[in-house]
Amino acid sequence: MSFEDLPVAVGVVFEGERIRKADMQVELGGPKIEKKFELVVTKKMNEIEDGKVEIIGPDLKDLEEGGAHPLGILIEVAGKEVEEDLEGVLERHVHEYTNFMEGVMHLNQRYDIWIRISKKSFQKGLNTFKLMGQVYERLYKSELPIIEKIQVTFITDPDKIAEQYDKAIIRYDERDARARGLKDEEVDVFYGCTLCQSFAPTHCCTITAQRYANCGAISWFDGRAAARVDPKGPLFAIEKGAPIDEYKGEYEGVNQAYKEKTLGAVTDVCLYSAFEKPHTSCGCFEAIAFVIPEVDGLGLVHRDYKGNAVNGLPFSTMADSTAGGRQIPGFHGVSIEYMRSPKFLQVDGGWERIVWLPKAIKDRVYDFMPENLRDIIPTENDVSSIDELKSYLKDHHHPVAERWVETGAAARLEEEERQEEIMPAGQQTQPFMMPGQMTTMVPATGGGPGFQIIFKNAKIYAEKVIIKRLDQKGKKS
Ligand code: SF4
Fold first, then answer.
1. Which of 90, 179, 341, 472 pairs with 403 at a CA distance of 20 to 30 A?
2. Nearest-angstrom CA–CA distance, 343 and 355
């Protein structure tokens, strides 16, 4: 496939390219834009005008430089072997193919897309969506020969996006619902995906009937269809093999797949836990399950959530701690659909361990939450700090409050409250959490060079930390 007639190069070499704000010509979608989407829809052969690229609204060159703009991408495809089951997987290729373009960065998926075009590529001539449409057309047809016809529509007119956005959300929901009802125990094969390894080299998704892909874009059925029509592609079958622990979701076949696909970086995974050998997290996850150690519970926060979660941290900060293809106990990338699964974090207590989530997520999964918990898990409308959260959970008899007694957390809570009387709130030290890596410098006494201590994936728990000042001779002063 040749792209020599285009003003920018196209190829796998550009995957993983980051476009910083200072270098971008425009941003399309992203956190500042409420409604954006990408959608692939299958059609009949006679419904497609092959090769057509339509732009509804201002073209790239007419968008204000440096600004964030709404965008909808609608790709319609047809072919004798193209079936509706493939839509989710075909749509996920938008991420890959957009990133193949020199100076173009694509993050996330579905209703959450975030694209940046670099100034350099814009100045080279990538100044119209027509060119992007041509790239999609050529890549889809050459990489996935089952696609015989394709037409692409870029929408930048906000009113038209709003119209199409609602239809796209319905389409996503219908796809997600298709996989519900099938149980992991009933299948011998799961599906793996390594599409995100360009950004997170040790990441591999295991997509089961009851654990939707982290990005929320690929179901077990999508994986099955993709592995069948594109056997050399990023989605592949994983024979479950013998269960090591079925309740935790640990299987010999899955562990073997991780060893192979991550070149030994990840060797064992429990599919239904955020703490014990957790599934890896790339960077495309729809939401994060994050530990709140003060209450021994887990919070949930999604990518679109504006402001800080109950622990005082925004999604972006926690995403940094979660992403990268690592297994970080207590920081776990998940999809919204997985929250609807009966297997959702079952090793950790499932919904009984969830202590906070944004109202927007609660509205989406409310009917799937256990009835007794629906109204006792607070949102940002109920609590806005850890202290308020503790009181709320205690007052509403949330199941984690019982764990406090079992684990001694109640005693710690009382101690904290006692300390609060001595030292006003805000002046106390916070629990120490450091996923990833922490480096600390220890200076030498006597003016020498000192030394460096590196903690990798450290989990530190201390009943008490005592810091004593020493004089030059190492004596307490
Ligand atoms: S998040 Fe997982 S399933 Fe989704 S594209 Fe990335 S690797 Fe594939």
1. 341
2. 18
Q: What is the CATH number for 223?
A: 3.40.1470.10
* 23 within 8 A of 120, measured Cβ to Cβ: yes
Compute the average pLDDT of residues 46-50. 97
Report which ligand 1 atom has the smallest distance to the Cα of 205.
2
* Same domain, residue pair 106 and 222: no
Residue-range definition of the domain harbouring residue 294: 184-422
Q: Residue 159: inside a domain, yes or no? A: yes
Ligand 1 binding pocket includes 196 (Cβ within 6 Å): yes
Single-letter amino acid, residue 372: N
Between the CA of 234 and the centroid of ligand 1 the distance, in Å, is 9
Residue where a domain terminates, one of 178, 204, 232:
178
The total number of structural domains that make up the chain: 2
Tens-digit pLDDT profile for residues 221-240: 999 988 988 888 899 999 99
Is residue 172 a part of any domain in this protein?
Answer: yes
* CATH at 79: 3.30.1650.10
Of all atoms in ligand 1, which is nearest to the CA of residue 194? 7
Could you report the per-residue pLDDT of 387-403, keeping only the tens digit for each? 999 999 999 999 999 88
Question: Ligand 1: distance of its center to the CA of 97 in Å?
Answer: 14
Last residue of a domain, one of 159, 178, 197: 178
235 pocket-lining for ligand 1 (C-beta < 6 Å): no
Q: How far is the CA of 204 from the centre of ligand 1 (A)?
A: 7
Distance 338 CA to ligand 1 centre (A): 14
Do 7 and 126 meet the contact criterion of CB atoms below 8 Å apart? yes
Asked if 283 and 10 count as a contact pair (C-beta separation under 8 A), the reply is: no
